[in-house]
Amino acid sequence: MLTQTGALYVPTLAKTGNPRYSVTAETASVPCREERTTRQTQAPDGTTVITSSVIFVPGDTTVIENYKMIIDGYDYLVKFVDPIRDMTSISHKELLCQGF
Length: 100
Prior knowledge:
Helix content is 0%, strand content 64%. It is mostly beta strands. The chain has one domain: Protein of unknown function DUF3599 (Thrombin, subunit H).
């Protein structure tokens, strides 16, 4: 059950080279559910990343790594996106996030 609502921010690159985040009408209110938990995950390059929260969003939500999500005033950086499939489609996505 996705009982919470969060805002999903898309990163763009500012002239300074630092990321800048913006929200669109379709990402301003995303149904979600957050579980604060510590997980240790191995990145594709072999490095270890410790995440502080798992956020569940609908399967049709467009999200990739380095998006920012704000839920209840807490800022999270999406580190991994894990699509969860049922028999025919993606039922939801698990976002492994780091708080910042």
